[in-house]
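Worked example

This section walks through a single chain of length 158. The input is the sequence exactly as stored; nothing has been trimmed or padded.
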Amino acid sequence: MDVCTAYVSLGGDPGSIVVRGRHNPLTWPEIGLLQFLHGETSVFNVQVIGEISRHRNSEKERLIGIYGEIPVAMVYPGRTPIGMEMKMPGGPDPDDTDEDIENDLRDISEIEFEEKISAHGAGKKGGDKRTRQRIRESGAVLVLPGGKEVELPKDEDV
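Given that input, the structure is written out below as tokens.
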């Protein structure tokens, strides 16, 4: 089961944010429960920081001890909560190498780059080629988990 850090906006109130960091992390099923209790968008900046071995029944009992039986039963019904996801969808693949992660981030960044320049009238359709070139020449740097920096290619006309 994935263990994560996250920010929780209590009751969806942006003025009441609880930080669940490395010393007080959340399990992935617990994030689902908090989204039910406080609102789907109230749990944000979620990052997987590790993995623990725990059976679904044990996790459900732990959550009942913290949040009570009724909310837990509403989110994870049944004696054995088969629908309880244990891993963050799209989370890190333990078989990925640093190079795989860098390539994925470059692909994502290229898509985000296109969306941003299109939103500012510099997209391919009817956009200004010089504006796209100036934006591209400025380059961008991605920071990977662990602090490693990856520079996106510069001087490419998109």
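What to look for: The chain has five helices and six strands.
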